Amino acid sequence: MTLAAAGSEIERLIALLARLPGLGPRSARRAALTLVKKRETLLLPLAAAMAEVGERVTVCSVCGNVDTTDPCTVCVDASRDPSVIIVVEDVADLWALERASVMRARYHVLGGTISALDGTGPEDIGIGRLVERALDPAVREVVLAMNATVEGQTTAHYITERLEPLAVTVSRLASGVPIGGELDYLDEGTLAAALNQRRPFR
Amino acid sequence: MTLAAAGSEIERLIALLARLPGLGPRSARRAALTLVKKRETLLLPLAAAMAEVGERVTVCSVCGNVDTTDPCTVCVDASRDPSVIIVVEDVADLWALERASVMRARYHVLGGTISALDGTGPEDIGIGRLVERALDPAVREVVLAMNATVEGQTTAHYITERLEPLAVTVSRLASGVPIGGELDYLDEGTLAAALNQRRPFR
C-alpha cells in the first residue's frame, strides 16, 4: 500500500521496518513516524549504529557467535572454563544463557536444527565442526542447550550419538516447572518431566 | 542489561531499537539479530533509508505533514480540492485518512491536542495558523478529524469556537458502529451515538 501523502523515502523506510520481526505494517508506520520526529536523538544515531554493525560485525569462525572480532569475545575470554562447550541453536539462545550468567563456558552456535522437512542435514548446521572441537582433550563436557521442541530434541539426540565415541560427558538442560510457573497453567509434558525428574527436598 | 557476549556495537543497536514504539527489549534483540543475519538485504538498505530520511525529510510549513519537499506533496497537489481542510492530531492520522482515500482535500496537522494537564495551549499546536488558513476565501469547509477521545474532542470544540466568526462550515467525523463491528462488543458511548445519529434506511 502506498502513501501518496508521504515521500517515497518514508514509504521505503516503512517497508523495510515492516520486515523486522515484531513489527507489522501498522507498527512500522508508527516507528517511522517516531524516527522522523526524533531525528537527532533516534533516527541519526540508529542509522549510524546500523552502518557500524554492518561494517564491523562478523560471525565467529570458532563458535558461530556474532561479534566485531573473530574469534569472538567469548572464545578468546581466558577467564572462561575451556572444558565446557554449551551447544545452542541460535545466537539469541547464547545471549539468553549469558544473561542468566550461571556458567562461564564456551559456546557452539548451530544456527538451526536438523529438519527433514526443510532439508537441513547435520553438516548444514556445523555438527562436524562441533565434533572436531569436542576432540580437543581440554574439552570434558558438552551441554546440549537446544530448545525443548521436537526439532531441538531430534538434533540433541543426533549430536549425542555423534559424540558417543568421544571422551566427553554429554549433558542436557533440566526439564521441569519454570521458576514462577503455576502448575495449573503448565502442559502435561512439562508436569510429567517435573515429576519424573523430581529431586530430594534437602 | 549488558551482553558481554555481543560486541558493544550490537548492544548499542539493541538499545536504540528498543526505543522504537512496538519494540521492547526482547523484540529489539530479535530485530538486531535479524539485521545482523540479513546484512545485505535488510541491515544496509535500512541504514541507508534512515540516513536518507534523516537528510531529506522535513515538516511542511503549511500543513505540518512530513515530506521531502516544503510545501509537501499534498499541499502542492493541484488535483486536490482547495476548499476543504481536514484537521488531524498527528501525521499518522493524515496517513490513515489518505489510505481510506475518500476525500482528496488539504490537511492541517496539529501535532497534538489542547491539554491542561500537559500545559499544551492552542498556540502550541498551531491553531492560530489554522485560523489564518481558514481566512483564505477559497476555503469553505474545515473537517475536524480529531480522535474520539476527551482531549481530541476538547480540541475540536475549541477550534469550532475559534472558527465561528469565519465564513467556513465546520464539520466533524460521524460517530457510530465501526464497519465489521459487533454491537455486543461495543461500549455504551458508541452505541448511544449510533442510536442518536441514526439515519433513514433508504
TrEMBL record, chains A, B:
Zinc fingers (C4-type) by residue: 60-75
Report the residue ranges that make up the Toprim domain in this protein: 83-178
Span of the signal peptide: none
**Highest taxon in the source lineage:** Bacteria
Keywords on record: DNA damage, DNA recombination, DNA repair, Metal-binding, Zinc, Zinc-finger
One Pfam entry for this protein is RecR_ZnF
Which GO biological-process labels does this protein carry? Answer: DNA recombination; DNA repair
Q: Name one GO molecular function term.
A: DNA binding
What HAMAP family does the record point to? RecR (MF_00017)
Q: What does this protein do?
A: May play a role in DNA repair. It seems to be involved in an RecBC-independent recombinational process of DNA repair. It may act with RecF and RecO.
Say which family it is in: Belongs to the RecR family.
**Protein's name according to its UniProt entry:** Recombination protein RecR
State the species of origin.
Answer: Acuticoccus mangrovi
Q: Which gene encodes it?
A: recR
